[in-house]
Amino acid sequence: MAIHITNHFWPETPGPEETMATVTYHFPAGLYPNQYNPPLSGVSVNPSFGELVDMHKASRSTTTSTEVLYRLDNGLKVKLVGTGFSFDASGDAVGGTVTSIEVLLNNGVGLVQTITGLNVSLETFNDAAAAFDSSELESWLLSGDDTLNGSTGNDELEGHLGNDVLNAGAGDDIVTGGGGTDTYDGGAGIDTLNFRDAYDALTATRGINLDATAGTVIDQFGNSETFQNFEEFRGTQFSDRMIGSSVDETFMGFGGRDTIAGGAGIDTIRYDRDFQLGATKGVNVNLTNGVSIDSFGSQDALSGIENVRATDLKDTIVGNSSSNFIRAFKGNDFINGAGGADEMRGGAGNDTYYVDNAGDIVNETADSGAGTDTVRSSISFNLGNTAAAIGNLEHLTLLNTGNISGTGNSLNNTLTGNSGNNGLNGAGGNDLIDGGLGNDSLRGSTGLDTFLFSTALNAVTNVDTILDFNIADDTVRLENAIFDAIQGVGALTSAQFVSNTAGVADTSDQRIVYESDTGKLYYDSDGNGAAGSVHFATLGTNLNITASDFFVV
């Protein structure tokens, strides 16, 4: 909602006499513009004068020697206050001086914004209002050394030329200085000091150099400025240097090769607004090594950062040893909190999360949580534990070599073990369960479950036990690259299966043998045992299992 102002003035429309205007934001009845009667659609903060007032769409309603009242097409009213106002027979101003401007609610009483300390002829003001658009008119009025005072609500304050003083007051405010050597005070609330107007200023040629502890900044024009009471900082398209303080702060570098050091406190780097300035890439952020490729393709240097807000595109984010909060929004994202108890939010898209701490939280409720999402965990993890796995998470893969467990949820899950001895439980849903290497215990629970065998067979170190195989609902799936002597893919043919108490093949065609009194499953690669049969799984005993319970892929 910020207004981008280009400072250019026509010679035939001179600026106001050299004055120090004061802009005061009001907060009538605690209402924001989108709550006015009539509402200003989409305006949820108290904006600058130029966003409220478009004199090209104004109609004059009353005039006196000290006041001229205009009605705007957005429902607001504007009152020019001054002395000696006079008009010719056609209604054009021919005399008088404007000393202040009031922006009023539709009732003509409630103050929205005032500009005092002006000294401009009424005729000149009318010429400027006709010549300039709304943002240019604001810049023309505030071209001196001005003071801007915010309200108790959330305001957007914008300075212009001149050495301005900007006092945001209470509320969560966004403050932009413009040209000149400015002084900023964020006041109470979570306030933002913004330098992204450099994108629209031809005279901006450098990144900012900001020190939040010292409260000093050299801005994009080379001016040395001071500030206090700000919690968020927004840079430029150039290479910015921003150093944080001991409080919690947020940084947005935008374009350029930025250097951002959060300092003490819990600090956040944001890339989620970059698209507003033309960025087209997802980010690759690594808080462990302090290197980030931003959404413009530039490399940033980060230190002392705990939290990341990424983009709507495909992001890759690695945290550090702190407890990180990582939010990636849309896109097919890869999020690894690294050390620490991290909260990871991927949002829409097919996201992959890496879990390594019992305190990690994977949250898929943000942005509706659409997509098919995977948790890759080096510790035991339960997709059905709503304290650690929030929202719709479909897949779980166990990492490394530990003897850890994995549990599904009510969805159709894919659970994959590691090389250790795992316990995998599909819980509800129609699940695909692959123990991987190791002697694993597998449980499908309710639903139509499939147990996949896809790793090199070993009768000592890679034998899985299916604890609840149900011949009415469940299926054993065999990877043909492992069971390569089986002919064909799809349902196992009856000629290639036998169930008996001996645990050996009866014919040379039989490849899968179910030993009914022990529940053991064997793979016989030649049907006569000469090449050796391999015990690869154990089911319940005395099941009425047939070839139709097996599927080859």
UniProtKB/TrEMBL annotation:
Record carries keyword Coiled coil: no
Source organism, top-level taxon: Bacteria
Q: What is its main location?
A: secreted
One GO CC annotation, please?
A: extracellular region
What keywords does the record list, in alphabetical order? Secreted
- Coiled-coil portions: none
Where, per UniProt, does this protein localize?
A: Secreted
* Pfam families listed in its UniProt record: HemolysinCabind
Q: What is this protein called?
A: Calcium-binding protein
Spell out the molecular function terms from Gene Ontology. Answer: calcium ion binding
